[in-house]
Amino acid sequence: MHVPTAIDTSISVNDIVKLQAEDETLNSVRQQVQPYRKSERQDETYFFLDKQLLYRQHQDKKGVTRKQLVLPKTMRSHVMKIAHESTMAGHQVVSRTLSRVTAQFRWLGVTRDVYKYCRSCDICQRTVPKGKNTKLSLGFVPLIDTPFKRVAVDLIGPMFPVTDRGNQYILTLVDYATRYPEAIPLKNIDTETVPEALVSMFLRIGIPE
User: Which of 29, 72, 136, 154 could serve as 23's disulfide partner, Cβ 3.0–4.6 Å?
Assistant: First the structure.
């Protein structure tokens, strides 16, 4: 008898049978149980018992016939967690998480539950998906015509190989008006080294507005 690998290994087959029998959310499903048989129609959907475990046979839109274990309520969060958060899952979108779940499992409201689970995932909420950012209208960028009124500062690195003097970063400064560049090699970019390098620049060109 095949029990999907996503089930917690600490739970026995007898445990699953008992949980299915005691789960009131599966009452309507139990009323639809038919004897296990090979359906003459591959696209026929029905529920059946196989060695006391409750399953659903279903053919998906791609024509693949699946034998899905009907999951009791107490086990659903665990399966959704594996389908969405495991290393191989990688916090996929709702549709892909649902596909992973329904490849082996089924319960009434599975689509709604997977949707809610993915939408409540803390990691997913902290990561804005590409293409979901609100497009903003282009703003007016003022023309800078006074030298060193505004400058652009950036750090480049780490670069390899390291120079003979141990430098592996470059602090750069470019004036917006004249495009005048400045660059200073740095051994590190800690909170003391970078400000000191900036001051050395400002001593030569003046402090920008």
Answer: 72
